[in-house]
Structure prediction request, 411 residues.
Amino acid sequence: MRAPFTHFLLVLVFLLGSICFTPIIHATNDSVFSSDSILTDPGFSPPPMPDSGSAGSPPSYSLGLELRDFTSKTLINDTHAILEITDNQTGQTIRTLAYVGTSGVARLLLPTGRYDIQIQVDQLDTPGTDYYYSFSQTLTSNVSRTIYLFPVGSLLGAVYSSDGQAVAGAHVKFDCGSSIGSINEQTSDELGLFRASWLPVGNCRISAASEDGMGYQDVEITHGARPSVAISLNRSLVHTGESFKPSSSPDALFLSVVVLAILILAVIAYLFMHHKSSPAVSSKSPHPPYKSPRPSVEKRKSAAKSTHPARVTFQPLPASTTIQTLPSPHQIHPRSTDIIKTLGENEKKVAEYLLHNGHHSTQARIKNSIGMPKTSLSRTLHMLERKRVVEIERIGKLKKVRLTQWFLGKE
Prediction:
């Protein structure tokens, strides 16, 4: 009886111990592994964030730029560089000054994004500016790259009138052999002076203009130098009388293009209508159209005086009247014979009539002689004139018709 009772007491003690000590073990575990204890324990610290800014901002990355001379490829160091950085997303521009040490590397820390970066170097031991370069860079990680800067120079200029007076407000333009650098147009100040700080190396034409006139000078820009130039406005400038405008308005340019296009269309339409209304040259004609020479003014006046005083009327010939036959073949030039064979019926009648009547006559006399209607005769004479068989001389209402020298074989 004592052994079972002892076993029962031991089981009961074990169960009571388990129930009593379980909350204590849990409480101890909670206090040791709590996150508050990890954060406050000086031996533990969370990993550093890549961005030193506020929470939620994009990460920043390092951009290392090694600067070298584009021409000599030598390192550019121990100098200050002017950096102009534009964020493409926000459009914000920051201009800062960075020192480039002996390594020739300028380092930037920028958030993720795409940037337009402009680098300008003005060394203290030269009178002018020295280097210029601009580029775009996308940052999604740490980047190191070599930048080859272009050599540039500076310029100090003055604008004078033809009588030697300083001209303020003159428009100054730079036309250089290269577009590298800053070649923006400028305006002379109240003393007539202007400055250009980042011009490409080489020959540049500096032009100035105002209402007083215009002038220009050619200048050789060298690396690190700052030459001086004086521009005299000794040339006349043609404008419309309005205030001087250095650049044309886009609206005015568009209007000029529209007017020019309308003029071109008008000319094309005129040529098309003129070509359409002009009579077409017959494809059956063996010779090009012939234009009779226009008589002089004196001949027309004398012919008008000789024909106008007395009005001549012609009576149709009797039906029994016959036209004399053509002369014998040996009296007609072979060319005339060959051409007559190619003519139509009405054309042949007119040509044979003129051959028989001294090679010339008038339209009215031909009409009455061969009995051809006026409309048909006019059309026939027009065709013969185009075939160079006859030539027609118009004097007032009178039309003289004669065989051409070419048809008669005399030329």
Residues 367 and 374 are 7 Å apart (CA to CA). The longest strand covers residues 143-161. Residues 60-151 form a domain with the Immunoglobulin-like fold (CATH 2.60.40.1120).
